[in-house]
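Minutes, project check-in
Item: structure for the 104-residue chain
Input as provided by the requester:
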Amino acid sequence: MPESNGQAWRRWFGLVFLALAFGMLIWGQTVLKSRLEGLAYLIYWSICFLFTLLTLATAILDIILVRRRSRRDRRELIKKTIVDLESLDEAETEDKEPERSTQA
């Protein structure tokens, strides 16, 4: 199933949000650890948490939309299969009817 343009964008946004949250985590625990105090500490980790929530929200949205598309595709496939089987059955019925009439 090819990816839609929207799906590609959602996955890129999710990747960017995840990379930002991970980068902030590493920087906050190593380079900036001694500099983050008081209000700066609270703001920094709130932004990191926000990027983490955005990553989760993007992933959940992607899951919901992929499942919806999968259900739609499955329904279309079932309908197409039923139509194909009905047309095949009609074609077989038409082929057999002339044979019966010639034998009688």
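Outcome recorded: The chain has a mean pLDDT of 89.
No further action items on this chain.
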